[in-house]
Amino acid sequence: MPGEVIDRPNPQPLPSHIEDHVLSLAVKLEKAKLDPSIANSLQDFRRAANYIAAVISTQKHQVQFTKAVN
């Protein structure tokens, strides 16, 4: 949270106000082992997507800045 000061590492979570039966509604997925080549491909895709998003965000802010200056 903004302005929140965490004075110790890994503080205990705050108590939840969600009823216990709601937790049983969560989707429970089985953990699957990925082939290393597939895992590497996903990592490369994610890295490329992050790069593209950063470039788009930077260009968007530059366009807004130029319009404000002119």
Describe this structure in words.
By secondary structure, the protein is an all-alpha fold. It is about 55% helix and about 0% strand. The chain has 2 helices and no strands. It has helices at about 20-25, 35-70. The radius of gyration is 21 Å and the shape is extended. The two termini are about 35 Å apart.
Concise summary:
The chain is mainly α. Helix content is 54%, strand content 0%.
Any chance you could write out the topology, listing elements then pairs?
Layout: H1 20-23, H2 36-69
Shape: extended
Strand content: under 5%
Integer average pLDDT = 80
User: Are there runs of 5+ residues with pLDDT below 50, and where?
Assistant: none
Number of strands: 0
The Rg value, from CA coordinates, equals 21 Å
- SSE ordering: HH
Helix content: 40-55%
Please give a handful of descriptors for the protein shown.
single chain; extended; mainly alpha; 70 residues
